[in-house]
Amino acid sequence: MIGYGFMGAAHSQGWRVAPRFFDLPAQPSMSVIVGRDPDGVTAAAQKWGWEEAATDWREVIARDDIDIVDIVTPGDTHAEIAIAALDAGKHVMCEKPLANSVAEAQAMTDAADRAAARGVRAMVGFTYRRVPAATLARDLVAAGRIGQIRQVRASYRQDWLSDAEAPLTWRLQKDRAGSGALGDIGAHAVDLSEFITGLRLQSVSGILDTIVAERPLLGEGIGLSGTAAAERGEVTVDDVAVFSGRYGSADGSYAPLGTFEASRFATGRKNALSIEVSGSLGAVAFDLERMNELEFFDATLPATEQGFRTIIVTEPDHPYIRAWWPAGHTLGYEHGFSHQVVDFVSAIAEGTQPRPSFADGLHVQRVLDAVERSSAAGSSWIPIPN
Ligand code: SOE
Predict the structure, then answer these.
(1) DSSP character for 168?
(2) CA 257/CA 245 separation, integer angstroms
(3) For site-directed labelling of 155, which of 7, 42, 120, 199 has its Cα 20 to 30 A away?
(4) Percent of the chain beyond pLDDT 90?
(5) Helix/strand/coil (H, E, C) string of 14-80?
(6) Residue range 228-275, pLDDT digits in tens
(7) Which of 180, 137, 130, 188 is nearest to 160 (CA)?
């Protein structure tokens, strides 16, 4: 695994726990964790259970005893590492968004295609697909339980930047993160809405906004009153992204509209990823802050019996649940990372293409790019290339 920040912790939990709760067709070992700071990465190795700590990722991906590379670094390093690892014959899992630009995402997808011809697999880490309630929503829609999709509402709202004095971390710098709320959390809303609906966005119209233009630099101390004001730096990414999207069905017969919001200034909302799909026969509504539940509306019932009902998605026959606990014993945010390991390792062992693929990640990157271009062009509609 390359990187050891928040996603390093979450992925480590997935690699450690998945083989102990699921019968995997192959057994992954937590061989090496890589980071630039020797002390930091050594501490991470000891804390999360990695056999070795290293500081040179190139040296590690050249080793014959390494089969899988898991990339959990900021977006500006995804392309270089993933392409080198794939060309070295390593299976690659890469955090979202796939890259910081369409060009990088395209180069990564080309490398993944070359590697797939040799049985080497690549996957991008949109883990919310692997929350049981989200997969149940996808299954209900695919089974026609809500009829034809009429409209989609997708939003991802957090508030960890509401404090104007929160420091200028890498997620607020375009050269490191590629974009702000749009790519960090808007990417999840795009991917999860397409996963649940089975539709792909064809065009978007949007607007980006930066609410706080500069912030204290990390490591300079926060400029408290009476002390030297901390050095401050410019925020070079969006804080809020609002956009509309036109989906297209595979057969071209209908093209529902979706509305999207991604904000890290939604005061009081901590990790509120919600997707609601309205259909001709019903609706489904998923909310990550209530991740063990799915709201389902069945419009085929007599009007006197209709209403959104809450499905507690913890039955053995619900996705992934059988490996965990009895009904009602709920799962948490971290379980999606175990499910991600299960699906990735299974695909590698079975010789199938794990989803979401790098091509799926490239599509999301094209949506993000189109929203940025739309915002720069007076919110005009921008087509998404296939
Ligand atoms: C920060 O917004 C963040 O950590 C995202 O980067 C993750 O992808 C999301 O799962 C939780 O919030």
Answers:
(1) B
(2) 6
(3) 7
(4) 95
(5) HHHHHHHHCCCCCCCCCCEEECCCHHHHHHHHHHHCCCEEECCHHHHHCCCCCCEEEECCCHHHHHH
(6) 456 999 999 999 999 999 999 888 888 999 999 999 999 999 999 999
(7) 180
Q: How far apart are CA 318 and CA 135, in angstroms?
A: 9
Ligand 1 center from residue 51 Cα (angstroms): 27
Q: Indicate which atom in ligand 1 lies nearest the CA of residue 95.
A: 8
Three-state SS for 153? strand
Copy the structure tokens of residue 17.
């726990």
Q: Where in the chain is the domain with CATH 3.40.50.720?
A: 6-125
Pocket around ligand 1 at a 6 A CB cut-off: 6, 158, 184-185, 271
CATH of domain 131-329: 3.30.360.10
- 6-125: which CATH architecture? 3-Layer(aba) Sandwich (3.40)
| pLDDT tens digits, one per residue of 84-137 | 999 999 999 999 999 999 999 999 999 999 999 999 999 999 999 999 999 999
What confidence score (pLDDT) does residue 219 get?
A: 67
Altogether, the residues listed in the chain come to a count of: 386
Ligand 1 center to 252 CA (angstroms): 33
Distances from the Cα of 212 to the Cαs of 239, 261, 300, 311, in angstroms?
8, 18, 48, 40
Stated as kind and residue range, the H or E segment containing 112 is helix 102-116
Residue ranges, CATH 3.30.360.10, the chain: 131-329
Read off the pLDDT band of 225 (50, 70, 90).
very low
What letter would DSSP give residue 229?
Answer: P
The one-letter amino acid at 53: A
